[in-house]
Amino acid sequence: MRVGIFGGTFDPVHLGHMIIAEQVVEEMRLDKVLFVPGGIPPHKAASSVRASAEDRCEMVHAAVEKNDRFEVDRIEIDAGRAMHTVETVPLLKEKHPENEWFFVTGADEVSNLLTWKEPDRLLEEVVMVAATRPGSDLSKLDHLEAGLRNFDRIFPVECSRVDISATGIRRRILQGKSVRYMVPEGVYEIIKEKKLYVGDLRRQRTEEGEPLKEGSA
Hints:
The chain has helices at 15-28, 53-64, 75-79, 85-95, 107-111, 119-125, 144-147, 166-174, 185-194, 201-207, and strands spanning 2-8, 32-37, 70-72, 100-106, 127-132, 154-158.
């Protein structure tokens, strides 16, 4: 089987994630995509992750439940510690070493691959799929060639442009605005039922590095 690994904090998972996964499945002829929600992200301050690991995992389950080619793996959540991708991937591969493995992420993240832990070792384990937007400047990935032995294992895949972000969703909720149709319906119901992301808008803006304007709420 050809299996994609789609990692992230998914705080929350939204339709942009789902569109990328679906289109990568088709373009790369994948049999399955494993969504791997991060438990304790190694590159983010703990305070920047709004929903608990269990709530985020529940939302991902709700998002994928009607797609037979999508599954959820709790490996990073159950680890109880921060895990780098280069640690997670071999553990997933151990379960089915006969499969061909791919790692799916956005092209912006791939452009920073040299800052990841042991990127060349990671590229020995998986083919890196860089999801790009239509008209993206792929030359932004060119600098990686000089720094990576396995640069040829990075494949850009053009996906539909969807201007939805987890940050924007959280902000809309804090502002009392609807996020319906920005997230899968099951995810919307969980957010509404558990009152996720309701809190202090001023504190979130400060932690995300957004300058506060005079009189902002």
